[in-house]
Structure formats: C-alpha cells, structure tokens
Amino acid sequence: MSTTPVTTPQTTTWKLxxxxxxxxxxxKHMMISNVKGSFNGLSGTLIEDTxxxxxxxxxxxxxxxxxxxxxxxxxxxLKSADFFDHAQFPTMTFRSTSVVKTGAEAYxxxxxxxxxxxxxxxxxxxxxPSAPGKDPWGNTRIGLSAxxxxxxxxxxxxxxxxxxxxGVLVGEDVQISLEVQFIKA
Length: 185
Prior knowledge:
By secondary structure, the protein is mainly beta. It is 4% helix and 54% strand.
C-alpha cells in the first residue's frame, strides 16, 4: 500500500519596512507626458509559505495623505474630494486572493484593491522575493518588485477637465510600481 506524503505548510511572517519601500505611480497629463507620484505611508505583512509559495498571502496599506508628486498644490488637489478624498477614504488596501508562479522568481499576485471606497480585483506582476539576507543590525530581509496598471475610473476617480485642443487633462490608465523590503517578524 502506497501513501502520498503530506506537505506541512512552513510559513514565515514578514513585516513591510516602510523606510526601504516605495509605491509609485504615473499617469498621462494633458495627453502629452506622464506625471509621477509616490506614497510614503506604506505598511503590510507577507505570510510566506516556503514549502509552496502559491499559498502565500500578502496584505498592504497605504496612507493616502502621504501622496507626493513634487507639487504641493497638485498634492492638495489629489487629496481632495475630486480625486482620492482622503478625509473620507484615508487608506488604500490590498489583500491577496491568489498567487500563481509565472517563472523562476516571478509570480502573478491577484487580490482585492480597495481605493476610494471601491474594491476591485487587481493582478500584480511580481519579481522575487529575493533570497533572504542579513542587514548590519541582525535583521533578516527580503525584497520584491511589483507592477500593475489600473483604470482610475474603475475606482470612482473620474474627475477630469477637457482641453481646448481636444482630449483631457488626466489620463485614465495609472501605472503602479512597488519596490518593497520586508523584515522577518
């Protein structure tokens, strides 16, 4: 009689290091160039299943008030009810629902993105995580990169202005890129 071995999940909990992580975005402005911005208020947790990475899970939060585009008046407008409405919706969240291996160190991580009070499924193309490494203070760290594209109107961010020359002031598609370090909990 043959038996199939049972794999016991082996998990490691990682906490996002906000000092060494970034969330950046870019969107077309006036249909001629991209405007870039970032968020600094990142936090999150990765539960990594080292025996089967596709059973891993990530949750992340971004404080909307931490937005920075390099222009204070634009940042104020983006925080207003015209866009993110940070007074009513202070946090953007992501909770993974599936992880699919796409290459040697590549995954598609799908999850629920909640932005501006709207929750939609989004898939990030993820490179990593890197092999664990020790920092000078004895912490174990890993890193990863992730990218996706969303349509801002899908999340109720529909403010725009028509241009005299045709077209609109703000594009609909938003490219999102993350560079994240985690510290072993």
